[in-house]
DNA sequence: TATAAGTTTAACCAAATGGTTAAATATGCC
DNA sequence: GGCATATTTAACCATTTGGTTAAACTTATA
C-alpha cells in the first residue's frame, strides 16, 4: 500500500471533518483540530482564517452527500422499485462509511447561526423521485402515494439507526461489528418494505 | 382561562427545557436560561447548583417521552396493526407538540460527556413490540419480519421530517402551519405503509 | 415584630477559547 | 547563496462563560 503524502491543507480539512463530525460545531476546538492534523494552531489560522470559514468548507461537501444526488441513477430506464432498491443500497453504504454524517448535517441545518452555510438545497432529490414516480404510476406499475411523504419515509428508515446507534448498541448489547451486520440485514429488510409499499 | 402561577423552580425548569431543546447543551447559556425564566443567574445557581445538574433534570424527563413507553397500549387485546396505528397517532402528536425533541435527545445520546445521564433505557419499547408481534405472528395475522428492524423503521419514519424540518420548509416553500398540515396527512400515509408491510 | 427563606444586584474569579503577533527556523527553489 | 514560502514556538489578548460571593431587599409566616 502506497503512502500518499497529504498536503497540509488536506491534512487540516481531513482533521476538521473528523472533529466537526464527532463533536459538532460548538463542541469542536481549533486546538483539537490542529492536534489531529498534527500541526499547530497558528498554522491552522494561517490556512483558514477562522473557525467559521473552515467549517463552511467541510460542511459544503458533507451536506451534498447526505442529500444524495441521484441524477444518473434515477434517469435509468428501470422500474421505479428497482431505483429505490439501488438508492437504499447506495445510501446505507454511505451511512455505514459515515455514521456521524446524519447527526452532523441535521444539527447544522437546524442551527440558526449556521443556516447561512446552506447554499445548495436538495431540491433535486425530491424532484427526481417525484418525476420518476409519476411516470411509473401512470403505467400502473406503482401504488398511489405521495412521493414527498415516501422519500421522507425512505430517508428516515435509513438514517434512524445511525442516529440512535448508542442506544441500539446498548439495547442489543452489541458492538460496532454487530451493528454493521444488523445494518447489512437492514438493507434487505428495507428493500422488502418498499416493495410492499410500492407494489400495487 | 385561569393564570396558574408557576413556582420559581418550575419557571426555571420550563425555561431550561426551552433553551436546552433549542440550542443544545453546548449552545445553551445559563444567563439565557435565567433571562427566559425571568430571574437572575445567581438565583438559577441557588436552585440548581450547576449547568450539568439542571440539564440532567430536563433530559431525564425528555428521553422517556422520546422513547415512548407503550405499556398499556400494547397490552390491549387488539390486532397488532391497530396497536401500531395507535402508536403512530400518539407519537406523531407528541412530535408535533415537541418538534425539537428528536434532535435534542439524539444529540445527548451521542454525546460522550452526557452519556452518564442516560439511565433508563428504552428496552421496554423494543421488548413490548417484539412480544406483541410474535403473539400475533403465530396466529398468522402478520407477515414475517424482524420486529427490531420494524420499530427502527417506524420511529425513523415518524421523526425524520422533524429533524429535517428546516430543509423541508425550504424545499416546499412552506411555513410552520403548512408543515403541521403535512404531518397530519403523514399520519394517514404512515398508517397505510405499516398496514401494507404487516398484512400477510 | 422578628426570623427565615426567597430574590436581587453587582462585582468578581478562573478557565476556556478564538484569534493575533512576532520572531525564529525550516524548506524548497532560482 | 539568497529569496519566498511554510512552519513552529510562545507569548499574548479579548471575550465568553460557568460559577461564586456578599450585601441588601422582599415576602411570608410564626
TrEMBL record, chains A, B:
Keyword presence, Kinase: no
MF (Gene Ontology): DNA binding
Keyword annotations from UniProtKB, A to Z: DNA-binding
InterPro entries in the record: Homeodomain-like_sf (IPR009057), HTH-type_TetR-like_transc_reg (IPR050109), HTH_TetR (IPR001647)
DNA-binding region: 29-48
A Pfam family it matches: TetR_N
Record-linked Gene3D superfamilies: Tetracycline Repressor, domain 2
Domain of life according to the entry: Bacteria
Domain HTH tetR-type: 6-66
Keyword DNA-binding recorded: yes
Listed name of the protein: TetR/AcrR family transcriptional regulator
Organism annotation: Runella aurantiaca
